[in-house]
Amino acid sequence: MSYSLCKNILSVIFGFSVITANMFVPAYGEDDIAQAQPELPTVPLAIITKDGVRHDFTVELAKTEKQQEIGEMFRKAIPARHGMLFLWKSPQESDMWMRNTYVSLDMVFIDADHHVHAIAENTVPLSEAVISSHGAVSSVLELPAGTTEKLGIVVGDRVESPGILVKAGSKG
Asked: 104 exposed, middle or buried (CB, 10 Å; 0-12, 13-18, 19+)?
């Protein structure tokens, strides 16, 4: 079922507008997603804590709707200092889930000013519970679970990456 059709049905049934395209309502049919996607193009990303400590990562860029829908699904491990950066076309409330995701993650919600807006730590593998940004964000960074606590990453820390300057949906 397409995202727009699901959005319209939800609007009629529940009487509210679906704000985000990031709810990952299957646009391609769940049967089409049966394995992990190949590694996506990577870019460097750094999180600079409030006390000036820099933490460097290598992140895959999930720019297209299909890449975002599959995300980290079916992957068995995510190496330390690696992750996936989901880029939205414009800042919006972001709702994520862990469907078909076998590894626990830390989700770092990044605002339009490139600061950490919210963090969801140690997400539950395979859960379909909604994990919300609790406000408008321009991107979401998924890291191996425990990373943010171990490194002392908190709300307000600065994020730097050429990846956050890339427009979502772009091919390049």
From this structure: middle
Q: Who's near 35: CB < 8 A, 6+ residues apart?
A: 74
Hey, what are 148's tokens? 């943010």
Distance set, CA 21 to CA 45, 71, 155 (Å)? 24, 14, 24
CB of 153 within 8 A of CB of 51?
no
- Tell me the DSSP string of 68-118: HHHTTTT-S---TTEEEEEEEEEEEEEEE--TT--S-EEEEEE-TTSBEEE
Instruction: Give per-10-residue mean pLDDT for the chain (172 aa).
Output: 36 40 44 85 97 98 94 95 96 95 97 97 97 97 98 98 77 55
